[in-house]
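Researcher: Structure for this, please.
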Amino acid sequence: MRIAVCDDDVREVSRIGELIAEYRMSRDESVVCRYYTNSTDFLCELRGGEYDLVLLDVLMPGISGMQAAWEMRKLDRNVRLVFVSASPEFAVESYHVGAYYYLLKPIDADSFFALLDKIGEELSMQEEQGFILKSRDGIVRIAFARLAYVEIMNKTLFFYLADGTVYEATAALGDFEGKLLSRPEFWKPHRSYLVNLCHVQSMDGNCIIMKNGHSVPVSRQRRSQVQDAYVHFLHRAGTGEAASAGDKPQRPDGPWRILLVDDEPADRAVWAGILQSHGCMVQTADNGADGLRLAADGAFDCVLLDVMIPGEDGFSVCERFRKSTDTPVIFLSCLTEPDKQVEGFAAGCIDYITKDTPAELFWAKVEARIRLAMSERTQLRFGPLLLDLEKRRVLMDGKELFLTPVEFDILYRLSERSGHVFTPEEIYGMIWGGQPWDGGETVQMHMSRLRRKLEKAWGGHHFIEAVWGQGYRFVPG
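Model: Predicted structure, token format:
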């Protein structure tokens, strides 16, 4: 794990260093740290992609921690940012810059270690997501998150990593297209390039500027699609424009579906109201058994789970959620003790929100966690239907459903925006890129075959519906 610590209090820096050293010894983990006593030095050396975690003090002379965070996000949208402060008053603002967590001084060792354990698990899973490349330097493993872009030139593939490493391989670009384009962060802006949008600095009509300063051309036929994809990516990363005053926020990926499990009717009404005011669709349950049943029958973007519920307590229910679904779980509890929060993280939650949290901070945390979980998702589950994005296969009720690569791509793209009606021309553009529009015959043929396979495998529900005169939409359940 690569950590940067920025705090003007030398005593606090020393204290954090001692905790990290203790953590390294107790876990026998490889942890590399760099320490800064002011934001200016930190920002001057920052290139983007070199840290997994940044611990940033809020109040510092000169450039404050909050100002530094905004500048840091221009270079690195993915690094986990944890604010450290003696006061909780900046917590709400911290989540506006995508904070991963907010620690109060003095830092509690148990809570800090639980946080590092959680990040370590996420990094391990992230590193597992990648592919093996037989390069000219030997066989190497490349993590998707570290790959900035791929270029083919004179029958040689060049794999450019975020840290400046370049691997060469004799292969065709098509050998890697299926693997990379099955992931939402990768796009093909030109016949000779594949680009990871996570490592894009900016984009104009003719080219993409990567964070390392390199330029990637965008073909004229794909210009509109790539620009739309980048705008969609920015929205999902939380950097899009806010909704107009008085309107419910709208997201290009559709309303988030949230399951709220709480036995107190008044609490359910309060929290559901906050979520709905931000454009979410909310289903509720008053016990763990009903919550698990609802999660099995439908697809949710997040589960909000109370600890003190009838029957099994929330910790046990959370463990069952983690075994049966990949939906992220956030505890929402009146229990504020640190040991309870540690127990929650041990059960598999991605965050623990106490019920005395202000509404604005509650929503900021939920939104940040959902976006982070979406960026790391390798599977999509919709009741009996499971899409394995890494292996590019589909399971229906545990049995593999054999789809062609094109059928998988159509199903995946439609499922990303459940309920949205795609015109045949939009589907053609997403799957076949800049090829001339054929009037819809190709889309109709592939869609007909895909729908027949889905209906044959699971007759109780048609996952793709035809909308007369408009197109097709994915219906999760």
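Researcher: Any notable elements?
Model: The chain has 15 helices and 26 strands. The chain has four domains: 2-128, 130-236, 257-377, 381-474.
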